[in-house]
Amino acid sequence: MNVFLGGIAARRIASWLIIAGVVLHGPGMLPGCAAGESDKQVVHLYFADAKRPVLIAEARMMVNPGEPTAFSRQLVVELINGSARGNLATMPKETRLRSFFLLGDGTAVVDFSADLRENHPGSCRLEQLTLFSIVNSLILNVPEVDQVKILIDGAEVPTLAGHLPLPFPLTADMLLTR
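The chain above was modelled as a monomer; its predicted structure follows.
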């Protein structure tokens, strides 16, 4: 596939996009298109399946504020709030998001309250589901996020529940997803 488009091809594509009604310069520029409507997007949050020890993608419509850090925070809060479709939460209800920031290399640093660790039910599989619920939900919905570093109360921890090492950032794992 040729990445570079010559001037004529680029103009044709731009014309087609304008004719098709795609807003190139921001929301609310076409007649009948209210500002903010185009800021909504479908995201896939990953929760535990109630019948099998796997993650299930749950589609939701969310407002994307256009800033990756703010959007990522919203995604994590929605994960903490739990499923809207009967899937199992992967984090204890008491868990709080303490802070979130995005490094220039694409590493999302997510700092949770100690409740995530202290109230976690344990087991290797449940620990995997918790971690990759967070990691997959961020990486697969926020293009600027390439990997995720988990902190508890502002500090690195060796593991969440004694099974999976957390000294390095994690990348998405779709093997747990059905």
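The chain is about 25% helix and 20% strand.
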